[in-house]
Design a protein that fits this description.
The chain is an alpha/beta fold and 135 residues long. The protein has a single domain, classed as 5'-nuclease (Rossmann fold, 3-Layer(aba) Sandwich), CATH 3.40.50. The chain is built from six helices and five strands. The protein starts with 5 loop residues before the first strand and ends with a strand.
Length: 135
């Protein structure tokens, strides 16, 4: 069976780093990515969310530590281009979802990947992307 390509959002990584609900599912996906050689995808906008939330809640040293760990994981950081930004903007125009979250959904849509999250905001986009719920 083919391993699905998955996009992480900030919710899934925060759950992983803070040992919240869904952390085990994210850990299993990271292990699967390492074992299969298929990287998980993370938009740089969502990377920034993880960084600033950690910075705000736990300080600069922990934020830098989390950034270092992310760089060691089987995660491909994707820098949005104009087309991806346009798609994120289209999703945002539907309303009810944060702009940064729209980048995760747009990346999943464009790459035909599953979006791994536990954030209920994404229910509004289930008609656009496949969601892999972590909790």
């Amino acid at each position: 069976m083919k391993t699905a390509v998955r996009v992480l959002d900030s919710y899934s990584l925060i759950a992983y780093f803070e040992a919240e609900a869904g952390a085990e599912t994210v850990a299993a996906a990271l292990k699967n990515a390492r074992d299969s050689g298929i990287s998980l995808l993370l938009n740089v906008v969502n990377w920034g969310e993880v960084y600033y939330i950690t910075l705000r809640e736990a300080g600069g040293e922990r934020a830098d530590e989390v950034a270092q760990v992310i760089s060691s994981l089987p995660i491909e950081i994707v820098i949005p281009d104009l087309d991806l930004t346009r798609e994120a903007s289209r999703l945002k125009s539907r309303g009810g979802i944060a702009y940064a979250d729209c980048f995760a959904a747009a990346l999943a849509k464009v790459r035909k990947a599953e979006l791994m999250t536990g954030d209920p905001e994404f229910r509004r986009l289930e008609d656009v992307v496949t969601i892999f719920w972590i909790d």
